C-alpha cells in the first residue's frame, strides 16, 4: 500500500501537522526537521495529494508565469530557473506567452487567477493602471516594471545602458543611436533616461521598434541615414537584425558602425561579429521572483523591490570610431 502522511510522521518522529507544513509551508518548518521529513518521505515513496491539500490549505501550489514572447531567447533561462526553483518549494509553474499583446496578457491573467496562487509577470505590456486593477484578483510579482505596492524585481538596464554608452564613448563615438523597443516599454524608458543623462553624447532616438530581428532589419536604413557611428539596441535580437541589415547595405560592423545589444543571449555570442552586449541576470531574476511571490503569501508581508546588477560583455561588434564617419 502507498505510504500515508501518518506513516511519514511516525517514521520521522514528528506530528502529522509538521509533515503537512513541510510540504505546504516549508519556510515555517525548522530546516533540520524539514530535511528529515523530506528524506523519510522519499524513502517511503510518499507523495502528498495535491487536490486534498488544496482543499485543506486553500492553496493550489501552482504559479503562473507570463512572458511577453516565449520565442525570445531572453525568457527561457528565466523560465527554467523559476520552474526549477519552484519545484524545490513544492510548487508547479504554468507558463503562458502573450505574443507582445496587452489584451492577451490581461485575458491570461484573468484565466490563470482561477488556477494558481500567484503570477510572475515578466516584462508586461499592460499599463500600470491595469496591472493594479488585476492585482485584486491574484497576487503578482512583477519583473522589469515598477508597479507601486507590488513585489518587484528590476534588472538594472539603466546601469547597463550607462556601461554601454561609456564603452562607446571610450572608443571615440560621440553620435550614438538608441534603438528603443515596443511602445510603452519600461526597459526602453530606463535605457533612454540613463543615456540622455550622460555628458559628451549626441543621442539619436530611433523607434519604437519591434523587439525582434525584423525590427533591427527594418531600422537599418534609418541608422545609416542618422550619421551615427555607434548604436545601443533595445535587445540582442534587434542588434543581430540591425547588423544583418547594415551588411546588406554595405556598412560593416564594427569598421563603420559599432553595435551593442542587451541580454547577452547565446545567439549573440555565435553571431559574426560576436556581439558586445549588456548581460542580464535572467536566471537569478527567475529564482528571486518565485521567492518573493511565496513570501507575499504571508500575512502582513511588505512588498519588496529588488534590483539586480547588469554588466557589459565586450566582444567583436564594437571598435574605435572611424576617422571619417558615414553620414
UniProtKB/TrEMBL annotation:
Keyword Lipid metabolism appears in the UniProt entry: no
The entry's keywords: DNA-binding, Transcription, Transcription regulation
DNA-binding among keywords: yes
Residue stretches making up the HTH lacI-type domain: 3-57
A GO molecular-function descriptor: DNA binding
Name of the protein in its database record: LacI family DNA-binding transcriptional regulator
